[in-house]
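Problem 12. The chain below contains 543 residues. Write out its predicted structure in token notation.
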Amino acid sequence: MAVGDWWRYGVIYQIYPRSFADADGNGIGDLDGITEHLDHLAGHADSLGVDAIWLSPFYKSPMADYGYDVADYRDVDPMFGTLGQFDTLLAEAHRRGLKVIVDFVPNHTSDQHEWFIESRSSRDNPKRDWYVWADPKPDGSPPNNWRSSFAEVGSAWTMDETTGQYYLHSFMREQPDLNWWNPEVRDAMDDVLRFWLDRGVDGFRIDVAHRMAKDPELADNPLIEVDAELRGSDRREALLAASNGGEDLRDQDWPEVHEILRRFRRTISEYDDRMAVGEVYLLDMPKLVSYYGRGDELDLCHNFVFLHQPWKADAFRAVVEEFEGLLPEGTWPDYFLNNHDHSRVVTRYDDGGNGRARARVAAMMLLTLRGTPFLYQGEELGMRDGPVPPDRIVDVDGRDPERTPMHWDASPGAGFTTGEPWLPIDPEHERVNAAAQRGDATSMLSLYRRLLQLRRGSPALRQGAYASLTSAPDGVFAYLRTTSDEQLLVALNMTSDPVRFAATPQGAGGQLELSTDPGRHIGQVPLAALDLGPDEGVIVRLR
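Solution.
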């Protein structure tokens, strides 16, 4: 079947359903809420202008890990709606020209999934080998030293008293890992993919795509020490960074995972114009790009190396250049700066109150690099990590602040809900909200809309070549995006000082198309002495 270019050249917007919009007033976002707000994203002149939405899990689930513990891959949890309401959402999105990507969670299920209920019922149950079971060591301790990704959980093994064996869970105890060495598991998951493909979804985001295959011998991992106080993404980054320089881990990035992904690709390719992007949480770039295969595995791989860079021009430049240099021929990069698991840009990069100025520069970088940008809901408004008091914390891994509800307006429920929200609404919503920003030409939302409009009309930004500009001074990330008919210069000042630099030889000039500073005059600028204000990014047309 033919594969289109929408996932290469479009912009993908992540929706975390619990926090996007609540249509029934119970305080939890739902599918009808998403449908009611699709015009914010696409379909008319005032829309943001994205090309696709990625929906985090909405499947039937006990919600131990807020939907990433799936109890039924083929049904919608009642708190989000019904399959019929999903079909309506899909149809309304397609009517607006929006593609729809759904989360696929193949590494583990909920312990309430019927497969696991059968598996744990007895050692001779036909589904016993659908999960990873192992005998204890002679002293009764777990089979090996593998640890959960969540610090609060500890060991990745839990003893099941009914059968006297341990089961593996890379995350919470309520999330047992499937045994991907079992061909029946592979067949069953192929059927899950086909269920949603037949329904009309346009692609999948594959959760922890690097974890499905593990060492069948269950050998110990190399000992890795990190600060015991670290939590969430900080802890995961420290563990990955420590492991990347030494012996390979036995519970992830096992070679067999590539055959699993090639099979996914074959199944998805049976359908016209579909795609798959993988959450490949590896901080080793050569390992990351191996998940593209020879163009026969993932279409896109989330680049967590880029996500974890400090606010430094040379750091981002180095990652982009390495990624560009390593990508297999014919494959395509993608970039993101946060999601439901990672702190928002305004909060993460703030240095004395300049978080939103830097977030404007970050938006320009994300939407002008060569590759597919992934945006997280609320970034287009400049939302920060919301304050969550201790008595309202619900997530085991400290990810509540980046999941607080979307700010639609200044009402007490932020336009998100008429009820009691599942997480507290940031008081900042009274001034940082979509309604207030929609008619404000200086707002973050207006900047995103202009960037997306410019990108949509620019072959150079959507599919042109990338080249770093070596004349840029310290603190400035500058690059060219070029096709045969168009060339744009992007210059991002990642310092809090004004900068002047020679972008091109003396006498040359260009047309300033867009600045992150809403007060800057648009017009001709001298490229031999290009001025950038503190925390300012610009796009200049050279031809």
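Discussion. The first helix runs from residue 6 to 9. Students who got a different answer should revisit the alignment rule from Section 12.3.
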